[in-house]
């Protein structure tokens, strides 16, 4: 599979919290977990489970950088 989106990370699902309307998916990508909120229907259609290998894709028009100025 080839993906044109440069903002992609590979990881494994750490936790799936399925609600009635939405699902919170926590993905272990290494340094920090990534949390995705998707519809419950999408989570069920993808058959997501802890330990599954997934790609996380990011699409953003705004990025904020913060630098600690305390030395």
Q: How are the elements arranged and paired?
A:
Elements: E1 8-18, E2 22-28, E3 33-39, H1 40-46, E4 53-57
Antiparallel strand pairs: 1-2, 1-4, 2-3
Question: Can you describe this structure?
Answer:
With 71 residues, the chain is mainly β. The protein has one domain: RNA polymerase II/Efflux pump adaptor protein, barrel-sandwich hybrid domain (OB fold (Dihydrolipoamide Acetyltransferase, E2P)), CATH 2.40.50. It is 10% helix and 42% strand. It has one helix and four strands; from the N terminus they run βββαβ. The chain has a four-stranded antiparallel β-sheet. It is globular, with a radius of gyration of 15 Å. The chain starts with 7 loop residues before the first strand and ends in a 14-residue tail after the last strand. The model has no long low-confidence stretch (mean pLDDT 85).
Salient structural properties:
OB fold (Dihydrolipoamide Acetyltransferase, E2P); globular; four-stranded antiparallel β-sheet; mainly beta; 71 residues; 42% strand
Tell me how many strands there are. Answer: 4
One letter per element, helices H and strands E, the order comes to: EEEHE
Q: Could you estimate the helical fraction of the residues in percent?
A: under 10%
* Mean pLDDT score: 85
User: So, the CATH homologous superfamily?
Assistant: RNA polymerase II/Efflux pump adaptor protein, barrel-sandwich hybrid domain
Oligomeric nature of the chains: single chain
Count of helix runs: 1
Total domains: 1
Radius of gyration from the alpha-carbon trace, in angstroms: 15 Å
The biggest beta sheet reads: 4 strands, antiparallel
| SS-based class | mainly beta
Q: Using the alpha-carbon principal axes, give the shape.
A: globular
Residue runs with pLDDT of under 50 for 5 or more positions: none
Question: Would you identify the CATH architecture?
Answer: Beta Barrel
CATH class: Mainly Beta
Percentage of β-strand residues: 35-45%
Q: First CA to last CA: what distance?
A: 45 Å
Give the spatial strand order of the biggest sheet: 3-2-1-4
CATH topology: OB fold (Dihydrolipoamide Acetyltransferase, E2P)
